[in-house]
């Protein structure tokens, strides 16, 4: 049954992942877009904490955890995002639903393998502004697209206490942005379009350590490192003379291609380290720090101004609690209760102001019948940016749902 579910869901969501509009943020105009992937639903519920070596859940941020799998795991997750964007004078709301990840993990003795698809970043915004000239100039800005990752990873149990792992990722995608300008008294307007096709590779390395301190109390530790890599961009630009139709549509009167140089964007190196204490199948509390060399980042075109990048840091604090993992009489005692907070400097600097992001999370792991499979639900509330200095403050409420199906595969039948 689980294998049939995997096939049907995989076919459904793998296609939609390539064309979804997963953000409504104007900040997604810069770099490779708004970085959407923040882990699976269960790790997001703990503020992004990734230190726990789970035997039934996939950890997509540290490949060393693949070696901890005891059952074949299929994971799929998505997020419903509700965002209120504010400036000092205006306020708008937007809603988006998008796929977060689709992955499979397979244990083979001390080795664990994982592969899947992750919509990594997203571009999606629609903005209109009006100048204060005597004859106002109306400007409309819009963008769609993003970067997807196909990955393959391996984890190996080096000793009973140490796991190591690595994965390779192929990045690909398309970003399209337009800038339309017109005046009411003039028959025609102009529209500039830019399109970038992106592709490149990067790798991640990881390690985990766990040891028993006393009785059932364990110490957990995790580290990951991603070296700097590069995404190549094939860029196109065109300028159009347009006319608005009575139906509300737009007719192109004349179009001309503009020669622009192909560019490349460096993906920053990243290092994270975290540790925590806990009792397996009972509780865990931990913290994690991630350092990102975002100062090497750049924009898609050389003539994009108004934003720079700086090195950034992310702090995560969280954990989980299970009242009684083996309870048969009370379902609520088997639920995994998770909570966490996250604070980060995103690395984006606009108007000489660093764009920061803070989020608080609470989540639940709901067991499915008598199996090891779970539905993981995460509720996240947070704020990014500021409404001052001609910037945008984004207040968001996200609901993430992840389906984690775990079962034994490739078992030889004794009876037909």
In short:
Keywords: Signal. Residues 1-19 form the signal peptide. This protein is mainly beta and 416 residues long.
Please describe what this structure looks like:
- The structure is a single chain.
- With 416 residues, this protein is mainly β.
- It has a single domain, classed as Porin (Beta Barrel), CATH 2.40.160.
- 5% of the residues lie in helices and 61% in strands.
- The chain contains 2 helices and 19 strands.
- A 14-stranded antiparallel barrel has the order 2-3-4-5-6-7-8-12-13-15-16-17-18-19.
- Strand 2 and strand 3 form a beta hairpin.
- The chain is elongated, with a radius of gyration of 23 Å.
- The relative contact order is 0.17.
- The N terminus is likely disordered.
Give the tags:
disordered N terminus, mainly beta, 416 residues, 61% strand, signal, Porin, single chain, 19 strands
Q: How many domains in all? A: 1
**Radius of gyration, CA atoms, in whole angstroms:** 23 Å
Number of strands: 19
Write the CATH architecture name: Beta Barrel
Keywords: Signal
Signal peptide: 1-19
Which helices and strands appear, and what pairs or packs with what?
Layout: H1 2-16, E1 34-35, H2 41-44, E2 72-86, E3 91-108, E4 111-130, E5 138-157, E6 162-182, E7 189-214, E8 217-226, E9 229-244, E10 250-258, E11 263-267, E12 270-279, E13 283-292, E14 307-309, E15 312-321, E16 336-350, E17 353-367, E18 374-385, E19 393-407
């Amino acid at each position: 049954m689980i294998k049939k579910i995997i096939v049907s869901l995989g076919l459904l969501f793998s296609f939609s992942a390539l064309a979804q509009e997963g953000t409504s943020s104007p900040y997604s105009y810069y770099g490779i877009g708004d970085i959407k992937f923040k882990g699976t639903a269960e790790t997001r519920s703990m503020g992004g904490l990734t230190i726990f070596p789970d035997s039934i859940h996939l950890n997509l941020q540290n490949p060393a955890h693949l070696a901890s799998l005891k059952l074949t795991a299929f994971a799929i997750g998505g997020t419903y995002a509700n965002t209120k964007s504010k400036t000092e004078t205006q306020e708008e709301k937007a809603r988006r639903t998008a796929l977060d990840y689709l992955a499979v993990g397979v244990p083979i003795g001390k080795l664990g393998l994982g592969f899947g698809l992750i919509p990594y970043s997203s571009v999606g915004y629609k903005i209109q502004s009006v100048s204060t000239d005597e004859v106002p100039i109306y400007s409309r800005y819009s963008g769609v697209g993003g970067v997807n990752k196909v990955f393959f990873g391996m984890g190996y149990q080096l000793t009973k206490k140490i796991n190591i792992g690595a994965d390779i990722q192929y990045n690909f995608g398309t970003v399209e942005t337009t800038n339309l300008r017109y005046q009411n008294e003039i028959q025609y307007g102009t529209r500039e379009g830019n399109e970038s096709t992106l592709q490149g590779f990067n790798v991640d390395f990881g390690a985990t350590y766990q040891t028993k301190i006393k009785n059932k109390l364990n110490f957990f530790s995790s580290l990951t490192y991603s070296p700097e890599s590069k995404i190549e961009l094939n860029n196109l630009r065109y300028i159009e003379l347009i006319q608005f139709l009575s139906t509300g549509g737009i007719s192109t009167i004349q179009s001309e291609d503009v020669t622009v140089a192909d560019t490349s964007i460096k993906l920053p190196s990243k290092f994270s380290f975290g540790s925590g204490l806990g009792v397996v199948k009972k509780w865990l509390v931990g913290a994690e720090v991630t350092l990102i060399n975002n100062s090497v980042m750049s924009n898609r075109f050389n003539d994009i101004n108004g934003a720079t990048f700086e090195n950034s840091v992310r702090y995560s604090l969280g954990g989980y609690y299970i009242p009684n993992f083996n309870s048969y009489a009370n379902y609520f005692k088997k639920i995994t209760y998770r909570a966490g907070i996250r604070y980060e400097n995103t690395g984006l600097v606009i108007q000489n102001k660093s764009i920061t992001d803070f989020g608080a999370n609470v989540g639940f792991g709901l067991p499915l019948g008598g199996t090891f499979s779970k539905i993981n639900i995460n509720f996240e509330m947070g704020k990014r940016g500021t409404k001052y200095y001609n910037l945008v403050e984004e207040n968001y409420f996200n609901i993430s749902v992840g389906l984690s199906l775990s079962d034994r595969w490739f078992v030889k039948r004794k009876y037909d």
